[in-house]
Structures are given as structure tokens and as C-alpha cells.
């Protein structure tokens, strides 16, 4: 039988072999009865009971997901609870009931209206439609007494195929049983993709409608590295994927084949993510996303809570470095208790350092004080602080002056402190262009390729319609990275990368050739990247980078990388 290949978006550098299990939860309902037969008061009471039951389920799933996967991923269930309590939704359901619909039909009709609205938006807002579907299907199931398909009890070697997977679906998947999953829709930032990376599951998303041609039970290879789904694989294809070995976990730092030591760190969102990063061999933390300390609560964390969190990180990596990004909100990261503006294009609006130096200056002060204190703790490890979304030298100067001012305050108060390493994220074209001027202000640069690609290419990173433009192997993005590294050459400034590009082992040689000193990524890919570092000769890597930088198109860049792999 001839192999059939389908292309999508690979979201984990892993491969799996197994048999297709199509997952299609059925939320369809029979036609509603005549409105005259509906008792509105009774249906409203049923709706309230269903909300309570759904809330209890969500709380259990959140706790289970936090334990199995991590706090970052579990936080999605907090958003689902908010949908249960959203007055636009609850009022809409009650209005439909008042017009004569049973509760389950009222829920479905109301939620479908909001799903359609979100699907008409772009980027990550469109992905919120999956969250709404998840809550809708849960309520309908509770109201109709339906049975939930238990994805946790699939046969070993199953590969889940689905139109889409909601957070609740993906959180059930057991890596010991499931060989991978594939979806018709979705992108790199979808919840399914995020869960796949956290669970170390081979996964390909966004294959398209042609995936429906694949029969239930067919044998497939899921290639999460190249983004391919191979149906009826040839024996050599199947064996190659089945025998793919997990890279060795190395707890010690690694060096290139010619002896250049490269720091390979992990990206984390909460203290719960620290242990898994260490377990995967991360040398330290290259990106601590502190906004997760501020989300899903009614008030911001105080200085003491933040201090203890940063000290925990330093204790976990007592022989390494912990790079903490100051609060980065705005854009796609709203916080309920902050007065965030309603902006037409929030990604180009008041986010990151712009808010820290403006309306959130009090939060900035609290955070910097906690960081200064943590830097002086006896937890071990080296603390570094970096600023998000920097565009001007003035922003960096102002932030550094505040750090030193708060240090003076602590000294007057008799509180121990130490000045941490101070750096900026390079994620705007302005920061890349001004990198040479910034070297006198900072100790390091950390390149955030997710946003850098978005801003260099003017292509919103969550918008599947412009995904090709926003690819970080676009020549313009590579040249922005190289310009940043060149600005630091001959200075004491080191250059790292904490975007998704850093976690792609197929690009490790290119990145080292471009001159990166540190790579930070999702913990799941740390072993593969460490292995790729040890197999790289920096002289060859520089030649590869020169060829890639001379390319005029993304296809040419990819051709250079492919030819290098074959040689």
C-alpha cells in the first residue's frame, strides 16, 4: 500500500506511530419541543444546577491539570469558569429560555452565537472560540445526561484524530497510552499545541479538511518535527519513527563539538514549572513569565509573595541563572483588576515596559523591590532581570534609574539587596536597530522571536492567514537577529534567545552560527537542543549562517538548511 502524506504544523520535535482513533464529541440535540410545553422557571433552575455541576468539574480538572501538566496550562480552566459567570452569556441563555427553549437548547444557541463572533476575529481571539465550545459542550452534556468520552482510557498506541481538541479534551490524554494527536484546525499557539509540548506528545495541527479522508483504525506516523502525517507508512518509515530515541537528559552544561559552552535554559510561567524544567536538564531559567503571578486573582501579588517566588526559582537552579521578565501585560494578556485600555490594535499599543513606566508604575516598583531582595538571598543561583517590549533607549534608561532608586530605598530601610544582571528583550525592530546604543545600558539581550517575527514582518503571530509571513526563518528576521548579535560583539553583553525558535533543534546549528550564547525554550525540547549543541562545530555553523543570511527568500533559507542536513 502506498504511503499518503498530509502536511500540517508540527508542534513538538517528536514522532509517534499508532492507529487512528477519530474523536468527534456529539453536541447535537434533537429538535426542541413546542414553546408552550416548556416551563421557563424549571428550565432556568436546571441551567443553574448545570452551571454549578460544570463549575465543580472545572475545578477538579484544573487541579488535576496543574499536577499533571503545569500551572500555565491549568489556568485555561479559570477562563472557562469566567465564561460560566459571564453576564452576557447567562443573560442570553435565560432570554432564550424565556422565549420557550429548554435549557440545553438555550445554552447551545447562546454559545454558538458567541463562538461565531470569536471565529470572525483574528489570531488568539479566534482561538477563544475553542474555550467557548468546551464550556458549551460541558453544559449541554450535563443538561442532557450525556456520557463523556474518556480519552484517558484509549488503547495503547492510539493516535487521536479530531476536527479540534479543546483544553478539556487535551488535558485527558495520557502519554503512556496516546502515541500522538492530529487536528484539522489549530496553530502553534492553540491550547492543543501548548498541551502537546507540555505533555511531550507528538502532534501535528492545522492539517486541513483533507485529514477527513483518513479512515478510523489506519496506521499512521505523526511527525511533530516536520509537521507531517504519514498514513499507511512503509516499513522503513514506520520503523524509523518507532525507533526514534528520546534525547539523553543531561543535567550538566553542554558545549559544542569544538568546546564552546552554550547555556540551554527553560521557559517557565509559574513555580510549578520549575521542577519539570530542571528534570529535563535545563541549566537555568531563560524566561520567567511573571505575568502568570498576576493572572486569575482579584489583586496583584505583594512584595513578599513575589520575593518568595523568585527565591524558589533561585533555589531550584542554585548553580544556574534565572532570568525574570518584568510584568508583561496588554496585547493578549489582560488582567481584570488593571485598567487596561480598549485598543483597536493592542499588540501595537500599551504593553510591556510601556505600562511599567506609566500606569503600572506602582506594580513595577513592588516587583523591582522583590527582585532586588531576591538577588541578595542565599538561595544560590544568579538573578537577572529583563524588560519586555523595549523600543527606545529612554525606556531602558528610565527603568534602570528606577531599579537603582529602589535599591537606595532598600538600603535606607536596612533591607538586604543586590543589583541583578540587567537586560532587555529584543522583540521589536526598534530594539534590533538600536541594539548598539543599548549595549552601554545592559548586561544582556534576550531575543524573543515570537514577537520579533510578528513585528518585523507585520504579521500577527496568531493569525493563520499570515502564518507564512510570520515564520522566524524569514530572511528579515534572521538579519534582525544577526544585527543584534553584531551590536554586542566586542562588548561584555551576552545574547540569548527565548522565543519558540530557540527550542527547534533543527535550527540550533544556525542559531549558534548567528552567534547566540544562550538558548531558552519549553522544557520538553531541552534534551534535543542540548544534543544538537554537542553535535555542532561553530566554524561550520558560521558558514551555515552566512549562507542563510545571504538568502533572499524564506524558501531559500529552508533550502540552505535542508541541504546542510543532508550533507
UniProtKB/TrEMBL annotation:
Cofactor field: Mg(2+)
Annotated segments matching region Disordered: 51-70
Top-rank EC class of the record's enzyme: transferase
Subcellular location: Cytoplasm
Family: Belongs to the PEP-utilizing enzyme family.
Main function: General (non sugar-specific) component of the phosphoenolpyruvate-dependent sugar phosphotransferase system (sugar PTS). This major carbohydrate active-transport system catalyzes the phosphorylation of incoming sugar substrates concomitantly with their translocation across the cell membrane. Enzyme I transfers the phosphoryl group from phosphoenolpyruvate (PEP) to the phosphoryl carrier protein (HPr).
Alphabetized PANTHER family for the sequence: PHOSPHOENOLPYRUVATE-PROTEIN PHOSPHOTRANSFERASE (PTHR46244:SF3)
Name recorded for this polypeptide: Phosphoenolpyruvate-protein phosphotransferase
Organism: Halogeometricum luteum
Phylogenetic lineage: Archaea, Methanobacteriati, Methanobacteriota, Stenosarchaea group, Halobacteria
Amino acid at each position: 500500500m502506498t504511503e499518503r502524506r498530509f502536511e500540517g504544523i508540527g508542534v513538538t520535535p517528536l514522532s509517534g506511530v499508532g492507529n487512528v482513533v477519530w474523536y468527534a464529541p456529539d453536541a447535537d440535540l434533537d429538535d426542541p419541543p413546542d414553546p408552550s410545553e416548556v416551563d421557563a422557571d424549571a428550565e432556568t433552575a436546571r441551567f443553574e444546577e448545570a452551571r454549578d455541576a460544570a463549575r465543580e468539574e472545572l475545578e477538579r480538572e484544573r487541579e488535576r491539570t496543574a499536577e499533571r501538566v503545569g500551572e500555565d496550562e491549568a489556568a485555561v480552566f479559570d477562563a472557562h469558569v469566567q465564561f460560566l459567570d459571564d453576564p452576557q452569556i447567562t443573560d442570553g441563555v435565560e432570554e432564550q429560555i424565556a422565549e420557550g427553549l429548554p435549557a440545553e437548547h438555550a445554552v447551545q444557541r447562546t454559545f454558538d452565537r458567541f463562538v461565531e463572533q470569536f471565529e470572525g476575529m483574528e489570531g488568539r481571539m479566534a482561538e477563544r472560540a475553542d474555550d467557548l465550545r468546551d464550556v458549551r459542550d460541558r453544559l449541554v452534556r450535563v443538561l442532557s445526561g450525556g456520557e463523556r468520552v474518556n480519552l484517558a482510557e484509549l488503547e495503547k498506541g492510539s493516535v487521536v484524530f479530531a476536527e479540534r481538541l479543546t483544553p478539556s479534551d487535551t488535558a485527558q490524554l495520557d502519554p503512556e497510552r496516546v502515541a500522538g494527536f492530529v487536528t484539522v484546525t489549530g496553530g502553534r499557539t492553540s491550547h492543543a499545541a501548548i498541551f502537546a509540548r507540555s505533555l511531550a506528545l507528538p502532534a501535528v495541527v492545522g492539517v486541513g479538511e483533507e485529514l477527513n479522508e483518513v479512515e478510523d483504525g489506519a496506521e499512521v506516523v505523526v511527525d511533530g518535527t516536520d509537521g507531517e502525517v504519514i498514513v499507511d507508512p512503509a516499513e522503513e518509515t514506520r520503523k524509523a519513527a518507532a525507533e526514534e530515541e528520546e534525547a539523553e537528559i543531561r543535567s550538566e552544561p553542554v558545549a559544542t563539538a569544538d568546546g564552546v559552552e552554550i547555556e540551554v535554559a527553560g521557559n517557565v510561567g509559574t513555580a510549578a514549572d520549575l521542577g519539570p524544567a530542571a528534570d529535563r536538564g535545563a541549566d537555568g531559567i531563560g524566561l520567567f513569565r511573571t505575568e502568570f503571578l498576576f493572572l486569575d486573582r482579584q489583586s496583584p501579588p505583594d512584595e513578599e509573595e513575589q520575593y518568595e517566588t523568585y527565591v524558589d526559582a533561585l533555589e531550584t537552579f542554585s548553580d544556574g541563572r534565572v532570568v525574570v521578565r518584568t510584568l508583561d501585560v496588554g496585547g493578549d494578556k489582560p488582567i481584570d483588576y488593571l485598567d487596561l485600555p480598549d485598543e483597536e490594535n493592542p499588540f501595537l499599543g500599551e504593553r510591556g515596559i510601556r505600562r511599567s513606566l506609566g500606569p503600572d508604575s506602582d506594580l513595577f516598583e513592588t516587583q523591582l523591590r522583590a527582585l532586588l531582595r531576591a538577588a541578595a538571598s542565599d538561595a544560590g543561583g544568579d538573578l537577572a532581570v529583563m524588560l519586555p517590549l523595549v523600543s527606545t533607549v529612554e525606556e531602558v534608561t528610565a527603568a534602570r534609574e528606577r531599579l537603582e532608586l529602589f535599591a537606595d530605598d532598600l538600603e535606607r530601610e536596612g533591607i538586604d539587596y543586590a543589583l541583578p544582571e540587567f537586560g532587555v528583550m529584543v522583540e521589536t525592530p526598534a530594539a534590533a536597530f538600536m541594539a548598539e546604543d543599548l549595549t552601554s545600558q545592559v548586561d544582556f539581550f534576550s531575543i524573543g522571536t515570537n514577537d520579533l517575527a510578528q513585528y518585523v514582518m507585520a504579521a500577527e503571530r496568531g493569525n493563520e492567514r499570515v502564518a507564512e509571513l510570520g515564520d522566524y526563518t524569514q530572511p528579515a528576521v534572521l538579519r534582525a537577529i544577526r544585527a543584534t548579535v553584531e551590536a554586542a560583539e566586542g562588548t561584555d553583553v551576552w545574547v540569548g534567545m527565548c522565543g519558540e525558535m530557540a527550542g527547534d533543534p533543527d535550527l540550533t546549528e544556525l542559531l549558534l552560527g548567528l552567534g547566540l550564547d544562550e538558548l531558552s525554550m519549553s522544557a520538553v525540547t531541552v534534551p534535543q537542543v542540548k544534543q544538537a549543541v554537542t553535535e555542532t562545530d561553530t566554524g561550520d555553523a558560521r558558514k551555515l549562517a552566512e549562507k542563510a543570511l545571504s538568502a533572499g527568500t524564506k524558501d531559500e533559507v529552508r533550502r540552505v538548511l535542508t541541504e546542510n542536513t543532508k550533507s
